[in-house]
């Protein structure tokens, strides 16, 4: 799918330059969530793991300050809201 004015790109396999954001997220999930929870929690079902993962992702996106490029210690959610304010309301309806 290609949105008006937004270029669509696919990532290349085994090429960090094209999927570095995802690789970094995977590492953060391992280091900050799975390795810690794996030591302290015994999961009986996948659903229990999913609940913990969703809780961590909520923390990651709304409460945890990020150090990434141009983030300036803000959360991804706050940056997303700022980005929406820059898009005219008419275009927001088309994107959603």
TrEMBL record:
Domain Integrase catalytic: 1-84
Family annotation (Pfam families): rve_3
PROSITE patterns (alphabetical): INTEGRASE (PS50994)
Gene3D superfamilies given in the database record: Ribonuclease H-like superfamily/Ribonuclease H
Signal peptide region: none
SUPFAM superfamilies: Ribonuclease H-like
InterPro entries assigned: Integrase_cat-core, RNaseH-like_sf, RNaseH_sf
Name of this protein: Integrase catalytic domain-containing protein
């Amino acid at each position: 799918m290609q949105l008006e004015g937004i270029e669509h790109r696919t990532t290349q396999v085994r090429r960090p330059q094209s999927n570095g954001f995802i690789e970094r997220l995977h590492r953060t999930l391992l280091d900050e969530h799975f390795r810690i929870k794996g030591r302290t929690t015994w999961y009986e079902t996948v659903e229990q793991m999913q609940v913990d993962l969703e809780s961590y992702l909520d923390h990651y996106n709304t409460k945890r300050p990020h150090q990434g490029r141009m983030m300036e210690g803000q959360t991804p959610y706050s940056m997303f809201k700022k980005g929406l304010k820059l898009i005219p309301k008419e275009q927001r309806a088309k994107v959603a």
